[in-house]
Amino acid sequence: xxxxxxxxxxxxxxxxxFYGWAHAGWANxxxxxxxxxxxxxxxxxxxxxxxxxxxxxxxxxxxxxIAALFQxxxxxxxxxxxxxxxxxxxxxxxxxxxxxxxKAVDLAVFFLAPVFxxxxxxxxxxxxxxxxxxxxADLNIGILYVMAITGLSVxxxxxxxxGSNSKYSxxxxxxxxxxxxxxxxxxxxxxxxxxxMSGTLSMGGIVQAQAGYKWFWLPQIVGFILFLIAGNAEVNxxxxxxxxxxxxxxxxxxxxxxxxxxxxxxxxxxxxxxxTSAIAATLFLGGWEGPLLPPVVWFFIKTYFVVxxxxxxxxxxxxxxxxxxxxxxxxxxxxxxxxNMVVTAFVIKLV
Amino acid sequence: MVETLLFYVFxxxxxxxxxxxxxxxxxxxxxxxxxxxxxxxxxIFAMLGSFFLAGLQVLIYIGAVVxxxxxxxxxxxxxxxESDAQMGNILPAFLTAGLSTTLIILAVLKTDWNTMAGESVxxxxxxxxxxxxxxQLISSFVLPFEVISVLLLAALIGAVVIVxxxxxxxx
Lengths: 351, 171
What we know:
The complex is a heterodimer of chains A (351) and B (171).
Chain A: H1 2-9, H2 12-29, H3 33-70, H4 86-96, H5 107-124, H6 142-163, H7 167-198, H8 203-209, H9 221-234, H10 246-249, H11 259-284, H12 295-314, H13 322-350
Chain B: H1 2-23, H2 27-47, H3 51-75, H4 90-110, H5 118-126, H6 129-137, H7 142-170
Helix pairs in contact in B: 1-2, 2-3
């Protein structure tokens, strides 16, 4: 019973015991210890990958149900109870469809683009604190690592746009890159403000800085709103879904993609939504901190709260025009973020 | 042992991608190779325990420089599918590359390296070298730091001025 409680609430303690025990056993075999570490890390990677994919499938279903709620219709309700197996059926369909490579594409670039987009989303999971001691690696540059790695997916999008050799893809890819680069700036300024308040870059450290329910969303309410807007733009969703504006660009940078490669883009979009929400929950809502329930449960409650907020925005607002989109970031978000940062710096020094 | 092995893997990857960047006839491929090459350098930084530099390397060089490069390439006329070998200025290119390589090799050989054993690298990873770096920047290296700030600000204002002049002519 105690063990179960420890596993749920204090994961690092039983884990450290198990880790020590495993290493002691391993030493008896006489093999170098780093092989055991590599085995453990591979296990973590597989667990994270499985959780990531299942979670993405669930978020797609959830998004469709929320959309149905907003549009007063039923949403998926045929496959399985309450339509729960709909996304699984969709994914299987995408995986077994014929994989079409158009003749004019640059094959290597075309093929690698989904990989370049999907791998960073997977790598970011390395520093997300899911619970007390449940963080794959608490790097001391945590949040900087997140920004650096998420920046890589821009290259994937540009590769998809350019490699497809199609005007819709190219314009979609360029728009997406412009948007991602522009909205990264206010996002980084907000993150910098949070780093100033917590005095650390590590994700675990930021959660600890908010211990005792001093969550950052209240003193940083401006920052929180800016982060949600910029985060929504970073995941390319309405009202910022210009890159794949279907009324003008067919489907944006993934126009030429089909079957499994398209599935990667689709999954990556929803994984990115989850990651942005998870980071928002960590930076502003105290991470896994909360009463009674285990930390992991709290982490997912808060993350899904942010996910729901973003979906609410998505299904409520119309799409922006491309020049308005740029103006909004450069003329409003960035100055407000800068002002927010300067004011916070003064308050930290004076109070 | 593992670290040495990893170092050689990364070093080989860096050299390979760098050579491919120069040799590739397709300029878009060159840009992708450049991104991979810079990522390899970031991996070397991380192996040396300097995660902050590794993060900045990826954030600035790949996230900004390479992205802008690719952006410019995408905007140029009909690059897609075209294979243009850049062999026009081979002599100046060789001279510049040879001269700078010689300089770097000389500098590496002349420097008295403060080498560290494996344990101290592990210890360095534990210390918060971000704080150390920040303190150094605003104490010992405050002058270069400020000069760079002014330079970047000038570049920023310059960009705005150039763009606004164009916008005025269009209207």
